[in-house]
Design a protein that fits this description.
By secondary structure, the chain is α+β, with helices and mostly antiparallel strands. A seven-stranded mixed sheet has the order 5-6-20-7-16-10-11, sandwiched between helices. The protein has a four-stranded antiparallel sheet with strand order 1-2-3-4. The chain has a three-stranded antiparallel sheet with strand order 17-18-19. The structure holds adenosine-5'-triphosphate. Adenosine-5'-triphosphate binds next to helix 5 and strand 9.
Length: 993
């Protein structure tokens, strides 16, 4: 973890403070006070508490700012799928990222070359055939982090580099190692590699889509789990052994075989299980699933019948049907090629072990006793094919061989129990080894071995363990983890430095705390293990004598860093492992290390009538001591039986040789909570595992170098805005240099390689802050421009609207003007017509007046004539004619009056109508129509006028006719007058005559 200058701690800076419950809690710097040498920083935590840090600049520079809280990453990095892309690579950042992702249901996260897998404790849909196919052919990083990506990576590396591969899966019990290893196996067995030529693809595929050998490899899982897994408090299906499975490929990349190597099977479980735990599954399966006849033969009953099965008090596992599991185991054994007959021999041996456990050992006067008729003893020896009496004898007695004689001594009950259990453990361990051997022979025979071109190994091994009470098992497990951690560190640094060299950047060797001294302390020539072996070989050796030797050798300043004697007591020692200090109780170390079975029992077992037992003892032992190099000086009996410690050391050395000859990939499984509840994240628990699996240590080490690296393209894409646009161009490397020169003043903070830029820790966060500031500036500028643009748009819209309104208004005014003009024109026309009409009327009136005058004149004349006629006593005819004329004239007058009145009426009507039409015409919408109407009215009126004039003409003609008649009447009247005159004159003459 690198420290950061005080400048980085600006107001608002997010940091982390340790928290008892959450591991770390986030806080923000709310005030920073630097006066002279004094520094006062006040932080406000997320849960509302103030934290004040008061220090001095001198102190800070001395401690390299160690007092300052670790910095929190910018939000965009906080759920990064690779921890190495975090700018501040510190413990809280790592924890927070894994936690954030886990709560987002992302169980996988990369930490550089490591895949961190956080157990979901729930079935997740991440392992379907579609997903398997999706990862096929993809490079790591192309898709979300996944166990398949690691498997694919290993496969591709094997093809590309023609190098064997190893995937190391580690983690504490229940973290998901076996689950991950099985997903990897399934991936290889069922992936359909697109790059593989069609003719070699799964040529001998079965109905499952897998080849026969792939099915066999998958079948190893139920077998190994039945015989090597058990229910523990931490995991219902806990593997009680380490396993390295080599999946073997031929030159066509077909899986052609497999080979299993196992490590340190927990033998003690066979004879003792802590509360709530179980023995190996196979025993419960056998009791639940064996047919009645077999049960009878093997004298089996319910599991509660057996001491070795009922000590934990937990015979069943929720959700697990042991009888059904028994069937699965049998099927798997058949798939591997173990005949039904052999299978029942295996089960017979298992039954015999259960009966051994039931042999009752009593004690009398400090001497162990076993009844001759003990049913369990009889059944066990019957099933094992050994002599009951001999077996009984060597259960309660032991033989001490000296140079001169053999002495037989009684054992007490406790010792006898140890002997009984050691025989059972020995047989079971050999059975287990034999099974592994058979599986290997079946999956990788000589023929296969000849064609193996490369392999991918999957190491499913127990992670670092530290409990309240730690014993031999934890010691071996932690020793293995020390070895693996060393390999991991070396690998990471090798890779790291290879990359620095490849990228041609200046680098100095990064110092890291190598755990070699700790390994040396354990496995060295005069190390803890060799002292243990030595003590185990001494007949008088005890745990405490061994412990004292340890103190003598290692409780000194030279070893202080890795070995300590506890302050109280003399029965334990502390080893400072890379992950944790662990205190080991020495009790039973020797016993467990020796794991001895008395020679008498060995001999007895060797002489068995049960051929299968003989077979497993021969083959099993062969595996159990592969690399043991017995010391020739030691007694022959002991030399034959290497200690468990030496076996483990030898197998571990061999494993490390294998691993070191391969290209290694790492999966660290994390158990997020103790109660096995889905999606529950207990930060403290995860933190301790991250420490234990070396993730935090690796991160700490990688921070010493250049932990963050970006390709030029990636870098330019994210940070191009940090420089002016005139620098932007297609040459990304050049642009990177410009950005870096401009942004980072201290050249030690980064290095430019051939394809990448390497940054010191914290630099990305710094660049992110610059980027954010720049974006904020841009945002302000954009806001300004946007506001201008918006106002401009609004102004333009307003202007356009105003112009439109103005145009509309003008149009409306013009329209009304037009309307007015049109109305005016119509009025003029009406007036013109009206005037014409009036003129016509006047003319007619004048004409009528003339006629009237004429009539009057004529009347006067006629009247004068009539008067003359009257006066002259005109004839009655003339008078009557005259009266008739008067009557006609009156009639005519009346008629004319009527006509006049009618025309007046019509005129009034026309005027009213015209007025109405005018009103109508004034309405805008009907203007045209009304004007048409008016025109029509005018036309109609004109027509009326014409009709009237026609009528007038008729009247005129009639008047003329009347005039001519009057004329004729006048003429006749004049004639009549002349006649009357003539008549008068004749009358006068006559009278004169
Ligand atoms: N990826 C996963 N998806 C769903 N469940 C899982 C996953 N990984 C682990 N588990 C669950 O966690 C349980 C414990 O896992 P597993 O047995 O693999 O742990 P382990 O690390 O091998 O433990 P041990 O060291 O005790 O053998 C499994 O039985 C399974 O229920």
């Amino acid at each position: 973890m690198t420290s950061h200058s005080l400048d980085v701690y600006g107001k608002g800076t997010a940091v982390w403070f340790p928290d008892v419950k959450e591991g770390w809690t986030s806080a923000q710097l709310v005030s920073k006070d630097v006066s002279g040498d004094n520094v006062k920083l006040t932080f406000l935590t997320d849960d509302g508490k103030d934290v004040v840090i008061g220090t001095t600049l001198t102190k800070l520079s001395k401690t390299n700012n160690a007092e300052l809280p670790p910095l929190r990453n910018p939000p965009m990095l906080e759920s990064a799928d690779d921890l190495t892309s975090l700018s501040y690579l510190n413990e809280p950042a790592v924890l927070h990222t894994i936690r954030t992702r886990y709560l987002q249901r992302n169980i996988y996260t990369y930490s550089g070359i490591v895949l961190i897998a956080t157990n979901p404790f729930q079935s997740v849909s991440l392992y379907t055939q579609d997903i398997i196919q999706a990862y096929s052919g993809k490079r790591r990083g192309e898709l979300e982090p996944h166990v398949f990506a690691i498997a694919e990576d290993a496969y591709r590396a094997m093809l590309r580099d023609e190098q064997n591969q190893t995937i190391v899966v580690s983690g504490e019990s229940g973290a998901g190692k076996t689950a991950s290893a099985k997903f990897i196996m399934r991936y290889f067995a069922s992936v359909d590699d697109k790059d593989r030529s069609q003719d070699v693809k799964k040529s001998n595929a079965t109905t499952s889509g897998m080849s026969e050998v792939e099915e066999q490899i998958m079948a190893t899982n139920p077998i190994m789990e039945s015989f090597g897994n058990a229910k523990t408090t931490r995991n219902d299906n806990s593997s009680r052994f380490g396993k390295y499975l080599e999946i073997q490929f031929d030159k066509n990349q077909n899986i052609i075989g497999a080979r299993i190597r196992t490590y340190l099977l927990e033998r003690s479980r066979l004879v003792y299980q802590p509360e709530t735990e179980r023995n190996y599954h196979i025993f419960y399966q056998l009791c639940a699933g064996a047919p009645p006849s077999e049960k009878k033969n093997l004298e089996l009953g319910d599991f509660t019948q057996f001491h070795y099965l009922k000590q934990g008090g937990s015979g069943t596992i929720p959700g697990v049907d042991d009888a059904a599991e028994f069937e699965t185991t049998q099927k798997a054994l058949s798939v591997i090629g173990i005949t039904i007959q052999t299978q029942w021999q295996i089960f017979k041996l298992c039954a015999a072990l259960l009966h051994i456990g039931n042999i009752e050992i009593t004690e009398s006067r400090n001497t162990a006793m076993v009844s001759e008729t003990d049913q369990a003893l009889v059944t066990a020896t019957k099933l094992l094919g050994i002599k009951t009496a001999d077996f009984r004898k060597w259960l309660v007695k032991k033989q001490i061989v000296t140079k001169s004689e053999k002495i037989v001594k009684d054992l007490n009950a406790q010792q006898a129990n140890v002997v009984r259990d050691s025989v059972a453990k020995y047989i079971y361990a050999n059975l287990f080894d034999w099974l592994v051997n058979v599986i290997n022979e079946s999956l990788s025979n000589e023929e296969v071995a000849k064609n193996v071109s490369s392999f991918i190994g999957v190491l499913d091994i127990y992670g670092f363990e530290h409990f309240k009470k730690n014993s031999f098992e934890q010691f071996c497990i932690n020793y293995a983890n020390e070895k693996l951690q060393q390999q991991f560190n070396q690998h990471v640094f090798k890779l790291e430095q290879e990359e620095y060299v490849r990228e041609k950047i200046n680098w100095t060797f990064i110092e890291f705390s190598d755990n070699q001294p700790c390994i040396e302390l354990i496995e060295g020539k005069i190390g803890i293990l060799s002292l243990l072996d030595e003590e185990s070989r001494f007949p008088a050796g005890t745990d405490s004598s061994w412990c004292n030797k340890l103190y003598q050798h290692f409780d000194n300043p030279t070893h202080k860093k890795y070995f300590q004697k506890p302050r109280f007591g003399n029965s334990s020692f502390i080893i400072s492992h890379y992950a944790h200090d662990v205190e080991y109780e020495v009790e039973n170390f020797l016993e467990k290390n020796k794991d001895t079975v008395p020679d008498e029992h060995l001999a007895l077992l060797k002489n068995t009538d049960f051929e299968f037992l003989d077979d497993i003892l021969t083959k099993g032992s062969a595996i159990a001591a592969p690399a043991a190099k017995p010391d020739a000086k030691r007694s022959s009996v002991i030399a034959k039986k290497p200690t468990l410690g030496s076996i483990f050391k030898a197998s571990l050395i061999s494993l490390m040789e294998t691993i070191n000859s391969t290209n290694v990939h790492y999966i660290r499984c994390i158990k997020p909570n103790e109660v096995k509840v889905a999606w529950k994240f207990e930060p403290q628990m995860v933190l301790s595992q991250l420490r234990a699996c070396g993730v935090l240590e690796t991160i700490r080490i990688s921070c010493a170098g250049y932990p963050s690296r970006w390709t030029f393209d990636e870098f330019v894409q994210r940070y191009y805005m940090l420089v002016r646009s005139k620098h932007w161009g297609p040459d990304t490397k050049k642009l990177c240099s410009v950005i870096l020169d401009d942004s980072i003043k201290d050249p030690d903070k980064y290095q430019v390689g051939i394809t990448k830029i390497f940054f010191r820790s914290g630099m990305l966060a710094y660049l992110e802050r610059l980027r954010l500031d720049r974006l904020n500036e841009c945002v302000t500028l954009m806001q300004k421009n946007m506001l201008r643009h918006m106002h401009q748009k609004r102004y333009q819209a307003l202007k356009a609207s105003t112009i439109k309104i103005q145009a509309l208004y003008r149009r409306r005014v013009a329209m009304s003007e037009l309307k007015r003009l049109r109305e005016e024109k119509a009025a003029i026309t009406i007036q013109k017509n009206w005037r014409r009409y009036i003129q016509r009327k006047q003319y007619l009136r004048a004409k009528k007046a003339i006629h009237k005058l004429q009539t009057v004149v004529r009347g006067v004349i006629a009247r004068q004539k009539f008067e003359v006629l009257c006066r002259n006593a005109a004839s009655t005819k003339i008078q009557s004619v005259y009266r008739g004329w008067v009557a006609r004239r009156d009639y005519k007058m009346t008629l004319k009056r009527i006509i006049y009145i009618q025309s007046c009426l019509r005129r009034r009507l026309a005027r009213a109508e015209l007025k109405a039409l005018k009103v109508e015409a004034r309405s805008a919408s009907h203007y045209k129509e009304v004007s048409y109407k008016l025109e029509n009215k005018v036309i109609e009126l004109t027509q009326n006028l014409e009709q009237k004039s026609q009528e007038n003409k008729t009247l005129e003609t009639k008047t003329l006719a009347l005039e001519s008649q009057i004329k004729s009447w006048i003429e006749r009247y004049e004639k009549l007058e002349s006649d009357s005159n003539n008549f008068k004159s004749s009358t006068k003459q006559n009278s004169s005559n």
